[in-house]
Design brief:
The complex is a heterodimer of chains A (about 110) and B (about 110). In chain A, the strands form 2 sheets. In chain A, strands 2, 4, 5, 6, 9, 10 and 11 form a 7-stranded mixed β-sheet that branches. A 4-stranded antiparallel β-sheet of chain A has the order 1-3-8-7, with no helix packed on it. Chain A starts with a strand and ends with a strand. By secondary structure, chain A is mainly β. The termini of chain B are far apart. Chain B is built from no helices and 11 strands. Chain B is mostly beta strands. Classes of the chains: A mainly beta (about 110), B mainly beta (about 110). The interface between A and B is medium-sized, with 28 and 26 residues.
Chain lengths: ~110, ~110
């Protein structure tokens, strides 16, 4: 595997379900990100992890719970979601340093909440 | 309050002509700007970037121009090809070491053969 991978690619869940999204980066980067992309809206940053430590939480509801066990893996745990949470969830990674390097994105998980 | 704006939701150009995608921003603390390209069912892929200390960066058919006084940047694609048809996102980084990016809402480019 190369780059940034995400599983599953598609997920349909009910409002009472608990599920997790997984992201893995094979680039040796030190930062990972979760974004939400809803229709007709900009990419919304949800969480940032630098060296496994959460450095940003963009006022995300507690029904979204991130986990970063190591610098290569990032999870997004989902529980009691709402239909308006249906969106494309994108993971990204980058090597944060003094000279900026771009973020590399995974293919995303298309989430539908019924 | 949207700090990065792409006011044109879509753009259609003929193959071989120039495509110009525009982006405006409000935060003068942005120190780095990037353009990403996104095909359906795929994640965004990095295209080209520019530091705030420069006004132009060129990479093959792609050139990004930055006008700091106007807080405006643009992406020029010349000549445009049908494979360039995608959604283009402008993004900006605040001067910090978190790597956080602020994205625009995207412009859908269609290049007609």
């Amino acid at each position: 595997e190369t780059g940034v991978t995400q599983t599953p690619r598609h997920l349909v869940m009910g409002m009472t379900n608990k599920k997790s999204l997984k992201c893995e980066q094979h680039l040796g980067h030190n930062a990972m990100y979760w974004y939400k992309q809803s229709a007709k809206k900009p990419l919304e940053l949800m969480f940032v992890y630098n060296f496994k430590e959460q450095t940003e939480n963009n006022s995300v509801p507690s029904r979204f719970s991130p986990e970063c066990p190591n610098s290569s893996h990032l999870f997004l745990h989902l529980h009691t979601l709402q239909p308006e949470d249906s969106a494309l969830y994108l993971c990204a990674s980058s090597q944060v340093s003094l000279s900026y390097n771009e973020q590399f994105f995974g293919p995303g998980t298309r989430l539908t909440v019924l | 309050d949207q700090q990065v704006k792409q006011n044109s939701p879509s753009l259609s150009v003929q193959e071989g002509r120039i495509s110009i995608l525009n982006c405006d921003y409000t935060n003068s603390m942005f120190d780095y700007f990037l353009w990403y390209k996104k095909y359906p069912a795929e994640g965004p892929t990095f295209l080209i970037s520019i530091s705030s200390i420069k006004d132009k960066n060129e990479d093959g058919r792609f050139t990004v121009f930055l006008n700091k006084s106007a807080k405006h940047l643009s992406l020029h694609i010349v000549p445009s090809q049908p494979g360039d048809s995608a959604v283009y996102f402008c993004a900006a980084k605040v001067s910090s070491n978190t790597g956080k990016l602020i994205f625009g809402q995207g412009t859908t480019l269609q290049v007609k053969p």
